[in-house]
């Protein structure tokens, strides 16, 4: 590993990655516990993603002040549209920070997204039990969906106080607008949720093959340090396991589709093997469904929350034991 010692610690808060770049990490990296980044240039800085609620984002804005007092925050880039990366956006908009995201990401940042998440916690059954468990620590009251001031498609190069920062849209992959944030002179990459380190990836948009291609792109890039959307900072050694999991699910699901199994039969019959120990293993339900949808456009497309219910059931929620 050519990483600095600070990188090896997975603790909540600010991490100095060297070369004027930082990460704000939120262990344990499971549902909603996401990471942000901070890139400084001369007299300015750029944030990569906000956090899942206003309190978490406020805590981060306070915690990074030793850096932003010298390098005022002027730009925010959202790597994708999931709430745990955008729900704090309004706190930056209030400070006149310019928000930038891919066009496909912008289209999905809506107030409906906030309300749906808040209301799903009141549901009964596995879904309600699961969301109260997973999203219980977060407060969605007062969140005003705040999209970007400026959008791009494909690639965009930003000047952050004399420093080049490259935005590379690799979505649709995990979500429609996934974007990598590359700082060439620091050989550093903020990967957003294209990388989950130590957890199970979940393919919401797909196709899975494009996510695998995004992993290959990262492996081909001149980067040393990588900050994932969830989990500890890593280097290229962290990319392989994500790529391997995705390829495994793509192969196993495709085989079962060709054998005539339906989605439920496919999910039930896949032995995760070396991936079985990863947290959030129930995400297999969505990942197999996504492969089926790609192979056959006639396969139904249930809402994300219906799928969350299936994931919850696979992980043992809904058995009446609320207290797990
Ligand atoms: Zn996330």
Features of the shown structure:
single chain, 324 residues, alpha/beta, Metallo-beta-lactamase, Chain A, 7-stranded mixed β-sheet, 5-stranded mixed β-sheet, 13 helices, 12 strands, globular, binds zinc ion
Structural topology:
Elements: H1 5-8, E1 13-18, E2 21-25, E3 36-41, E4 44-48, H2 54-63, H3 65-68, E5 73-77, H4 83-86, H5 89-93, E6 98-102, H6 103-106, H7 111-120, H8 125-135, E7 150-152, E8 155-160, E9 163-169, E10 179-183, E11 188-196, H9 208-220, E12 225-230, H10 239-258, H11 263-269, H12 284-295, H13 304-314
Parallel strand pairs: 4-5, 5-6, 6-7, 11-12
Antiparallel strand pairs: 1-2, 2-3, 3-4, 8-9, 9-10, 10-11
Zinc ion (ZN) is lined by residues 34, 82, 84-85, 193, 229-230.
InterPro entries: Metallo-B-lactamas, NDM-1-like, RibonucZ/Hydroxyglut_hydro
Domain Metallo-beta-lactamase: 33-230
Protein name: Glyoxylase-like metal-dependent hydrolase (Beta-lactamase superfamily II)
Task: Encode the helix/strand succession as letters.
Answer: HEEEEHHEHHEHHHEEEEEHEHHHH
The percentage helix is 25-40%
What is the overall number of helices?
Answer: 13
Mean pLDDT: 94
Given helix and strand content, the structural type is: alpha/beta
Number of E-state strands: 12
Q: What is the CATH fold-level name? A: Metallo-beta-lactamase, Chain A
Task: Provide structural commentary.
The protein is of the alpha/beta class. It has one domain: Ribonuclease Z/Hydroxyacylglutathione hydrolase-like (Metallo-beta-lactamase, Chain A). The chain contains 13 helices and twelve strands. A seven-stranded mixed beta sheet has the order 1-2-3-4-5-6-7. A five-stranded mixed beta sheet has the order 8-9-10-11-12, covered by helices on one side. Helix 10 crosses helix 12. It is globular and about 60 Å long. It starts with a helix and ends in a 10-residue tail after the last helix. Bound molecules: zinc ion. The site of zinc ion (ZN) has 7 residues, from helix 4 and strand 12.
């Amino acid at each position: 590993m050519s990483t600095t010692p600070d990188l090896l610690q997975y603790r909540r808060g600010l991490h100095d990655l060297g070369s004027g770049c930082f990460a704000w990490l939120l262990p344990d990296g499971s549902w909603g516990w996401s990471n942000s980044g901070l890139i400084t240039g001369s007299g300015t800085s750029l944030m990569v993603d906000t956090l899942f609620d206003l309190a978490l984002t406020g805590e981060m804005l306070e915690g990074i002040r030793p850096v932003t007092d010298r390098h005022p925050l002027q730009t925010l880039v959202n790597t994708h549209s999931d709430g745990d990366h955008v729900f704090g956006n309004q706190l930056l908009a209030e400070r006149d920070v310019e928000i930038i995201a891919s066009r496909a990401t912008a289209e999905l940042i809506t107030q409906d997204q906030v309300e749906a998440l808040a209301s799903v916690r009141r549901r009964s059954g596995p879904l309600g039990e699961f969301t109260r468990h997973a999203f219980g620590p977060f407060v969605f009251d007062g969140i005003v969906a705040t999209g970007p001031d400026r959008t791009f498609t494909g690639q965009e190069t930003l000047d952050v106080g004399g420093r080049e920062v490259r935005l590379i849209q690799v979505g649709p992959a995990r979500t429609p607008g996934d974007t990598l944030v590359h700082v060439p002179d620091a050989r550093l990459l903020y990967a957003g949720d294209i990388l989950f380190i130590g957890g199970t990836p979940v393919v919401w948009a797909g196709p899975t093959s494009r996510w695998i291609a995004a992993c290959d792109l990262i492996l081909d890039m001149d980067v040393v340090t990588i900050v994932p959307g969830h989990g500890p900072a890593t280097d290229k050694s962290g990319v392989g396991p994500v790529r391997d999991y995705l390829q495994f699910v793509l192969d196993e699901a495709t085989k079962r589709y060709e054998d005539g199994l339906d989605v439920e039969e496919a999910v039930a019959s896949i032995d995760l093997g070396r991936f079985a120990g990863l947290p959030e293993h129930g995400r297999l339900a969505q990942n197999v469904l996504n492969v089926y949808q790609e192979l056959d456009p006639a396969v139904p497309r249930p809402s994300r929350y219906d799928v969350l219910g299936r994931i919850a059931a696979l992980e043992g929620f809904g058995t009446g034991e609320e207290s797990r």
